[in-house]
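To the structural biology subgroup,

Please find below the input and predicted structure for Transcriptional regulator, LysR family, which we are adding to the shared reference set this quarter. The sequence is reproduced verbatim from the submission form. If anyone notices a discrepancy with their own records, reply to this email rather than editing the shared folder directly, so we keep one authoritative version.
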Amino acid sequence: MNISLRQLRTFLAVARHRSFSRAGDAIGLSQPAVSHALRELEGELGLKLLDRTTRDVALTEAGQNLAGTLERLLDELEGCLAETRQLGETRQGRVRVAASPTISANLMPSCIARSAERYPKLSLMLRDQVQQLVLASVRSGEVDFGVIIDPLGADDLYCETILQEPFCLVCRADHRFAGNESVAWSELAAEPLVLLDYASGSRPLIDKAFAQQQVSMRVAQELGHSTTVYRMIEAGIGISVLPILALPLPEASDLVVRPLFPAVERSLMLVRRKNRSLSPLAETVWALIREVAAEFAASRTWP
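Predicted structure (tokenized):
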């Protein structure tokens, strides 16, 4: 059955005014358009709703039953749509966002603070998860969208890049690389590496960078958190390759950061289910995170 709101509203207008011309004037349609809409409605229902004469329009029994129920239903629908429109305009409600750990720690606090300042009635709830769990939460609809590292081949998701950031070298201040302004990837070949494990969205990109530079990796430790990586470097276990967003270094640390060349960057992305529209509130938060990321990129300096 293919019945439109336009047909139903036209029928109600005729039922109220008992005239095609007066109904048309009330809803902004010509008399032929009113007649056409009602013929389509009756055709879809397979029922005669109106008895027409040259002087009057009368409702059939079916028309009376429909008019009585339809007026209440359309009033409720109008009220529901008005409430929904107001919800979007007032930015009131909850938005759930999942983000991988370095993003949760270093980008999302600014996003949440700005959201609270700009939209005090909007509750932005963060789910701090490793990359694969973020992807699972987005796909299942548990969150409105995610903020992650380039998921490399997630064709079922819509991805928008919001930030490009380079990988850098982290080592102790007494390491031979600490005296360099920058370090070549090729120089890392003989070095023990303390790296994030494969729960991190960065690790596949780091492996890919070593492969592209034709540098063999000597992995000493694979760890789940950047804080643990820093402690291992401080203990002399090795050096690390980390994204800029994993900084700043711990306070009172004797670690240093150096650029790697050629520069290799990772992409931070907003991700949502493909072919699924965001709610107006989620669209608002999506745009806000994009805005904060752009400001972060513009103000970024090497430590």
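Summary notes: Residues 61-90 form the longest helix (30 residues). The mean pLDDT is 89.

Regards,
Lab coordination
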